[in-house]
Amino acid sequence: MAQYQQMKAQGIRFVVASGNQYYQLISFFPEIANEIAFVAENGGWVVSEGKDVFNGELSKDAFATVVEHLLTRPEVEIIACGKNSAYTLKKYDDAMKTVAEMYYHRLEYVDNFDNLEDIFFKFGLNLSDELIPQVQKALHEAIGDIMVPVHTGNGSIDLIIPAYIKPMAFANCRNYGE
């Protein structure tokens, strides 16, 4: 915390950037969450000083198209990342749910992805490490015009909206501070 205070005294803005959920990120900085900026969900959502700066948004049609394709891939466990919460299927095993709960501090278990009322900007996919190269390629071919598959390590692929990546989010954050 002393380092943050030194940065603040020098007029340096502290920005936390991660592919993780905003609600997880603010849990790491509870004392200063309303003073700093967060680039969460791989650039899908930017919050500065407790105020929304920007968030990407999939259209309902794009969301439905992506979900429809993902449900044809039994090797993939799906987490739909929204502004209010993340959502995953009740049918997944407890091991997956335990891992998901570590990264998604707001997580709802649903029967399906139909009729969810939220703003969606990312999908997190869990799968076996050895399948990542082929699944990533297949996702790029099938839905790459809607979302870009990015390998995030440890058996995970994030699907992000192409225009809303971290560098763009940093630009939004910088412009907000001016």
UniProtKB/TrEMBL annotation:
SUPFAM superfamilies named among the record's database cross-references: HAD-like
Entry GO CC: cytosol
Pfam family, one: Hydrolase_3
InterPro entries tied to this protein: HAD-like_sf
UniProt keyword list: Hydrolase, Magnesium
Enzyme class: hydrolase
Organism domain of life: Bacteria
EC identifiers of the protein: 3.1.3.-
An MF annotation (GO) of this entry: phosphatase activity
UniProt entry tagged with the keyword Magnesium: yes
The protein, known as: Putative hydrolase
Native source organism of the sequence: Escherichia coli
UniProt gene name: ybjI_2
